[in-house]
Predict the 3D structure of the following.
Amino acid sequence: MKICVGCDHGAIELKKAVLEVLQEFSHIETEDVGTFSEASVDYPDIAQRVCQRIVSGEADRGIVLCGTGIGISIAANKIKGIRAALCNDVFSARMSREHNDANVLAMGGRVIGVGPASEIVRVWVNTEFSNGERHKRRIEKTMALENM
Ligand code: RB5
């Protein structure tokens, strides 16, 4: 599985930690699309970089990070085919995979510490979609909203 990871200047340290955690998994390949310095960047540009890899099929999933995780998750969810979940706790991370089949995880570098964030990443990459009929139906309805 390939996971593309991106952050704005508000989550540089968190991105480093996320990439380190992903190295624990031998079946996971990562791509770091920046940003690489503390210089201010616009989170929609980073969301676009990560999500473009997913919708093109170059990556299976993505992790997007900004100061709060809010701006970058909103931006990611504007892109067709993306289901980005802002998760600052392990339960939400698990549910976002089981019930929502989230293909993007968002977190906030100014909100969450490296320890909890690392556990969230572990759970999020390890949890499969439950494939339940009702969840599939709800996701289909959600994705249909892209055409409104
Ligand atoms: C950047 O200062 C900050 O606005 C951004 O990282 C994020 O928190 C936006 O939602």
Remarks:
- The chain is about 45% helix and 15% strand.
- The beta strands are 2-7, 29-32, 61-66, 84-86, 104-108.
